[in-house]
Specification:
heterodimer; A: mainly alpha; 61% helix; 0% strand; B: mainly alpha; Rna Polymerase Sigma Factor, Chain: A; Arc Repressor Mutant, subunit A; 72% helix; elongated
């Protein structure tokens, strides 16, 4: 059984591998959202049909939300802002 | 106020008005309830009006407005979103709009699946797949690299496909957002055990 080592800045005893592994482990688990992995593109495994279905439903949902009438308060707000600006100071 | 100023103000007002439906839809897609979405839109309009001098003529006003809304949303609601998101199905409920004119059962599944997609990925998917932005514009809005947007959109689609059972992959069905994560875990564990094995 190996004795437990505490890293004190010296790699000469061959513990570099262990330290490296710990660093890799920490990178993999403590910083899962680092930009490096964010940049990587996963291989596309979605079928065209699946992609189409998702796209269609997403647009449908969004269009449904967009189709709601603009509340009067927004029109009033914009009118008030415009009037405030056009008034001489 | 000069005549040109007045004309500009008129143009600006009209543009803001036409973007409101899309801004509201985006806010709702981010997970805001209808009331909160309207608060966000209202604040966006006020900020946009106050800062119209800083809007660069000839650039995309819609992109600018979405950026303002997103920044407002993140600075004010990030914490609250994290707290409430998916805890009580409020996200899916917030997306329900009446009257539901479409095949509602099918869409209910989709809304639920969408609510399970992590915020950043969902946002990227909505900007690209529904709001009509290019990858370049979406990257500007989110303040990140184009590659990051592409990756997030891919992962969002993958997650949705898995949740909705649209994947035909047999065996390796773990190709979801967590795929790379568990791979990393596997290799790290292998690395850790290797010194002892030697």
């Amino acid at each position: 059984m190996r004795p437990t080592r505490v890293f004190c800045g010296d790699f000469s005893d061959g513990s570099a591998d262990i330290e490296g592994s710990v660093a890799r482990f920490a990178r993999a688990h403590m910083m899962p959202h680092n930009p490096q992995t964010d940049e990587q593109d996963e291989a596309p495994t979605l079928s065209d049909e699946a992609q189409k279905q998702i796209g269609r439903k997403l647009r449908l949902l969004y269009e449904q939300l967009e189709a709601e009438p603009i509340p009067d308060k927004f029109v009033d707000l914009l009118r008030a802002l415009a009037e405030k600006e056009s008034k001489p100071r | 106020m000069t005549k040109a100023d007045t004309e500009h103000a008129g143009f600006f007002t009209r543009e803001l008005l036409t973007t409101i439906p899309s801004l509201r839809a985006f806010a709702r897609s981010l997970g805001a309830t209808p009331d909160r979405a309207d608060d966000l839109v209202q604040e966006t309009l006020i900020k946009a009006w106050a800062n119209q001098q800083s809007f660069v003529q000839g650039t995309n006003l819609k992109t600018w407005l979405f950026t303002i809304l997103r920044n407002t949303a993140y600075s004010e609601y990030r914490k609250r979103w994290r707290e409430v998101e998916d805890a009580d199905g409020s996200y899916a409920a917030g997306l329900v709009s009446e009257p539901a004119q479409i095949a509602h059962l099918d869409m209910a599944d989709f809304k639920l699946a969408l609510s399970g997609v992590p915020q950043e990925q969902r946002e990227a998917l909505v900007l690209i797949g529904a709001s009509g932005f290019s990858y370049d514009e979406a990257a500007k809005i989110c303040g990140c690299a184009v590659g990051t947007i592409k990756s997030r959109v891919n992962r969002a689609r993958q997650r949705l496909a898995t949740t909705l059972g649209l994947n035909d992959i047999s065996g390796g069905g773990e190709a979801s957002a967590d795929g790379e994560h568990s791979d990393a875990l596997g290799s790290a564990q292998a690395d850790l055990s290797s010194p002892d094995a030697r």
